[in-house]
Input
Amino acid sequence: MSRTRFTRRLPAAVAVAGLALAVAACGGESTNSAETATQATAAALDPNADLTKQSLAVTVWAGYTPEKLQDMVKEELKIKDLTVTLHETNEVAMTKLTAGGNHGIDVAFVSGQYAQALNEQGLLEPIHAELIPNLANLYPEATQLSYDKGNKYSVPYTWGTTGICYRSDLVKTKPTSWNDLLKPPAWADKKVTLMTTERWLALPALKSLGFSVNTDKDEEIAKARELLMAAKPHLLKFDDTTFGDLLIKGDALMVEAWDGWCPTTHEKQNIKFEVPKEGSDLWVDTMVIMKSSKNKEAAHAFINYILNPEVHRWAAENINYKVPNKAAMEKVKIAPGSLLGIKPAELLNGEAIIDLGQASTKFSRLSSEITAS
Amino acid sequence: MSPSRGRRLGAFVFLSPGLTYLVVLLLVPLAMVLSYTVFQRGRFGGVVYEFTTENFTRLFDPLYLGVVVESLKMAGLATLIALLVGYPTAYLITRLPGRWKTVALVMVVLPFWTNFIIRVYAWIILLSGEGLINSGLEAIGLGPYELLYNQGAIVTGLVYSYLPLMVLPLYATIEKLDPQLREASANLGASGFTTFRRVTLPLTLPGVMTGSLFVFVPSLGNFVIPEMLGGGKSSMVGNLIRKEFLSARDWPFGSTLALALIAALLVLLVVQAWVARRA
Output
């Protein structure tokens, strides 16, 4: 009998304990006050600080920096240690950096609109340009990015745009407009893809209607929704990871793609990239220094080291993304068909995606509506 | 120490590793997720601890309700097909001679030895426009058909992935069934079908329920198959939850959807337990 009593009471006891722990956990996290935006004030930094006493923790996307970065940085900067943690997406990084508590991150790699949002919350240390002489290597255009003109709190690492990636040997006419994807001609019916990630799902429709990619107007989003709903039956699928393979296999003929992911250097040389005439976006992945960092001198030295042409060219050569570093790009050997040759001035025609705050839920809803229909 | 106290202590000692695991890694996170349902979304994910009931109102938005209904339909259809395929399979396995039974059972479980994603990916190769099935059909002058990136492909993937979970419990119940009951039924003049309808099926109903639940539950919450085989063109609750957490950064609403899913499954478990007890 004692056994049944024991097991019967147990679930209740466990539930109570669980709730108590959960409440405790919640209480601990409630310092997360999202809207306490304080004006960024620069710390006084010592240009002659002893870096051997400073350790850095960096968070970055997997495969986005050289594998030997840790050894390279330690060797070059003589800092005590470098820890590299990886994040899958911007969202994961943001959760880590804004959740309160001690994340211990000194330098984070996030996209431009996220850097902007972090800064609005007062979480970023202003960039002390005097500690980063290699900023001079950047293209002049790279200091005029709309989310952060003059690189006040972020330093661009890679940049690019979104366009139509297509099979030049299989298309009957070369795509020039977002409408070639949204209203595909008969020969491309069910052979085109759009991206699934919310802002990029909306991008072709918004641009073809002549709206801003950063719109938060309900009627503009509604018009984009109509266009996307009408396009859906003519799509092969929504995809942001395998579109390159779909093109190579011939399952798709035209796809919405980020330039760095469009396999234009494929051996058969039958894949090309086109920025539609209605315009597109400009995405930038940046490096930022957290205000909470206790190793700010080392953090600046780290960014300065990344901007060294010999280091920065690694990104262009290995991950196939353009880097906003003139001195580095001049050293990069550009393979036939490679999109690394796109000029900064052309990129700047694109509209930088900025963070929309609360209005971003409109885009989440749009994407749910499109997929659920 | 009295024997009953000794037993109690023993139970505690043996239960504590599993219980600790469950409490710390399942119940606490679950309680946290459930507590999120009454709070507001943080700008970058996370939760702002201000009370709201908005998440529950949103649940009844036709948009999300539609996704729930659609998921129930797809998971239900997958379960039904798995049952129709799984029952005869399980029945035949029980009729096999001893050694072959083992072989057949191993073959049922065999797919589990390969990674789930790889098995689902294999279906893309089978079903795609230039895939094996379409090229086969083309050779005999048919097709090509649109087999991939639609709801049919999702249901196919679900049935394929969870069929073993249907066959195994069915096998266990059918195997336990006393053959003399069927003989008695036949002796009393019942046809094969009547015997199945009035004797075999009612007695194996708990197995049917368990198997159906094993297929239905993971099907309902699945997000990998709809994404890979459905091409992102239709979403199930699982996709919605994943999206709310990862890309929409709306943890509270994601939690509310998860809560709704858990509640629906609890109801099913209660029904299953009730059927099992009656049998």
